[in-house]
Amino acid sequence: MDTFEINKIAGAILGSLLLAMGLSVIGQMIFAHRALLKPGYDLPVPTETTAAGGEGGGAPAVAPLPERLAKADVSKGQANTKACQACHNFEKGAGAKVGPDLYGVVDRPKGSVAGFAYSDGMKAKGGDWTFDDLDHFLTNPKAYVSGTKMAFAGEADPQKRADIIDYLHTLSDAPVPLPAAAAPAKEAAPAAPAGEAAPAAPAGEAAPGK
């Protein structure tokens, strides 16, 4: 290969490099970003939680169990136990399956079904299955009984739990009474403005305190 051919090849390579460098400079000029005023990125600020609930207000307050049981629906509770029937019997005398039978479970001592292999956590729990205990257990079985064999993850809906508990409460020869809901607080009568006499008692009635 003579010197002229070598020079042609070297010139072509040099020209390609110069073209590439030129395109890079032009591209940086076109697509250059403005300098940031400060480093980093602005992160979204979390909204404050309030007791009123709603957007940014946290979880709504759960009504006490007696109030939820007062408006519970037994038929809905029975329907909500269909998934439980794979592991539990609900009929009297049907015996245990994967889990213990649930007939008469309300007010029954925990871990007391004869012949069923309870977990150590359930055997150590002690006490009877009260309405409150069932509510806490159905909310999160693994949190209520450490090491429980119960595969059910829990029911998050408070009213669904009340419906189920109300249904379980009926599965007994002598159902225990449901807990009474607290009576609503009575509003106090408005005080009379200063300088005005209190309204007189109707004829025939004694004034309060007499």
Explain briefly what this protein structure is.
The chain has helices at residues 3-30, 65-70, 74-79, 120-125, 131-139, 141-144, 158-170. The protein is mostly helical.
Key features?
single chain; 210 residues; mainly alpha; 7 helices; 34% helix; 0% strand; elongated; disordered C terminus
Write the layout of secondary structure elements.
Elements: H1 3-30, H2 65-70, H3 74-79, H4 120-125, H5 131-139, H6 141-144, H7 158-170
Helix pairs in contact: 5-7
Shape: elongated
Global Rg: 37 Å
Number of DSSP E strands: 0
Uncertain spans, ≥5 residues at pLDDT below 50? 40-56, 204-210
Q: Report the mean per-residue pLDDT as an integer.
A: 80
Order of helices and strands: HHHHHHH
Secondary structure category: mainly alpha
Ends distance: 132 Å
Strand percentage lies at: under 5%
Fraction of residues in helices?
A: 25-40%
Q: Looking at the chains present, what oligomeric state does this protein adopt? A: single chain
How many H/I helices?
7
